[in-house]
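Each letter names a residue; the fold follows as tokens. Both lines appear below:
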Amino acid sequence: MDAVASLRRILAASPSLCTPTFVANVQDEIESSLNLKQVLVENADGVQYCDAFGRTVSYSPLSQSLPIPGHTETITVVKLGQMAMPALKITQVFGTTRRVSAFVPLGQPEPSRAGPDHPCRRNAARGADQWYLGVHAGRRDGV
């Protein structure tokens, strides 16, 4: 799971949570990922300490939190903000009081939102424009 690897890289590179270094590491990881949308630090009661963008993260659980076999992280299906599709919340306990979570959307965006900011794959006939993983690939005939 890429989200688990992203979360581990962030924590390994950050000597403490919610510092400028931590936030920079989170933002670097989000920028280099096709799927990672948000990282949140909170306590067991859900009190939020910081996130990637300096705002309150709105999410609602849609499932129970379950362990990921062979990993120390847990996984929960959530509704993240106003996103139409559900997301996975991958959580790692940090110390005795903090939890760090990475949020990754499930599935593809709606076709009406497909484009350079929304990864998708669209089939196209020879000579038609193509989008692949959100990057405009131009025309197949080299134009």
